[in-house]
Amino acid sequence: MRISTAQYYATQAANYQRNYSKTVATANEASSLTRINTAADDPVGAGRLLQLGQQSAMLDQYKSNISTTKSALTVQESTLSAITTALQRAKEIGLAANNGIATDDDRKAYAAELGQIQQQVLGLMNSKDANGNYLFAGSRTDTAPYSQNPDGTFTYNGDQTQINLDIGDGLSVATNTTGWDAFQQTINTSRTQTAMTAPAVDDGRVVLSNGTVGTAATYNAKFAAGQPYTVDFLSSTQLKITDALGNDVTAEASQNGLISNSNGANQTVSFRGVDLKLNINLKAGDTNPDAVIAGHSFQLSVSPDSFNTSRSPGNPSTAVVTGSSVTNQADYTNTFPSAGGAILKFTSATDFDLYASPITADSKPISSGTMAGGNATAAGVTFAIGGTPATGDQFVVQSNNHQTQNVLDTLGQMVTALNAPIDGDPVAKQKFQGAMESALGNIDSAVNQIGSAVTSIGARGQSLEDQSTTNQSMQLANATTQGSIRDSDPAEVMTRLTLQQTMLQASQLAFSKISQLGLFNKI
């Protein structure tokens, strides 16, 4: 077989170029100790590196999310702790004011301090984070979660939405604590009320408090179903309780309804989960206690729902809702929208419709009517209207069933009770003591609710720590795997480089020798 000189030179040049490229590539690999620089170096390995790179980026994002969530939860926890400290001081004030020796002036001073605590707690509930977002407003981070109503109560303006961030594959954690969870679900211990039905004029001899819920399970299971109850005093040492159907249920009261006629005893009567404070106030000349106490009667019932109403912005008239109450319990129970509230909309100066909130293009009224005597009655609720409504007037109505109560309202009730004069009036003093005990129970309930929120934050914080450890292990494994695919073995690559360089030199020497064997070199 004959090989032409041109063919030989071309073949040798191609081989040399190929070997030279390999040597350069190996030299670069030796310099960077990176085996795969392009997909062409190792298509399978390059694909695997791309997947591992995406996982690494995701793990970095998880790390950032964990850091962000930890920071947010720390701020929330410290804020809730500050609120708890303020409420502990409020409880101290309530106990001091209720010690039996405080004067009206003392109580007014306590009321002033308690008012400052209320504003402090309000400010903490409306706290913002470093980015200017409200901590406890749910997803409505640009809206202050709490605002004060014209009647002095407070409304929660946030929602119940939790903002979640991914911290691991298939795992996310809520970064926020809503005011609904931390404050709005505080169990209201003051859910019952008493009203004297006999004698027609209160003689002050029997004072029965509105009561506090002492055992929630018993209250929920039994109390509401049998109310309203009638509490009759048969003598100065025995009372009788009958339910709404007239059944004698005295056996379910503490000591079977046996009471003490000791003057100002401030004794407790427990009935179906409700604790009532009772005082028997005998007067001078009451030689026959049974005769003067017998015949006193009270009605004991669940506190009726109340309503917060507000004018919608842009109402054509200046009319307002001055009061509202349930006047038909059956209609109210069956018709009034408890979730989300309602909107009272006037279609003329006297005609109105009641809608479930919010009103949409498809909304239909759940009740309609015409005002009578300045009152608008819809879905079992009567609204007292001040002024003359105009077509298009709307009023937002929120119902309150008193099952829960935020602590701002509790503090407001305490301030009101502390400012009322009671010196020299034993009956007023006994009623004040009952009101303060209810308020103190609600403060304890609020602290417990906040404690549950703090516990939730702690549990999420522990989850962050555990997942952070898991993610770090995954990042280490990821880096190790990427290194095993991408990185070169220094000993192997240097040995290969030496071999390739030697082969390249040998190729150069061989080409030089063979090129001298041409015919013209022999002439």
Automatic annotation (TrEMBL):
**Major subcellular site:** other
* This protein's name: Flagellar hook-associated protein FlgL
Q: What NCBIfam families would the database entry show?
A: flagell_flgL, PRK12717.1
- Segments forming domain Flagellin N-terminal: 3-141
Family the UniProt entry places it in = Belongs to the bacterial flagellin family.
Name the domain of life this protein comes from: Bacteria
One family from Pfam that matches here is Flagellin_C
Swiss-Prot/TrEMBL GO biological process terms: bacterial-type flagellum-dependent cell motility
Looking up Gene3D superfamilies in the UniProt record yields: f41 fragment of flagellin, N-terminal domain
The segment annotated Disordered runs over 461-487
Molecular function terms, GO-annotated: structural molecule activity
InterPro entries per UniProt: Flagell_FlgL (IPR013384), Flagellin (IPR001492), Flagellin_C (IPR046358), Flagellin_N (IPR001029)
Which segments show compositional bias classed as Polar residues? 464-485
- Where's it found, cell-wise? Bacterial flagellum; Secreted
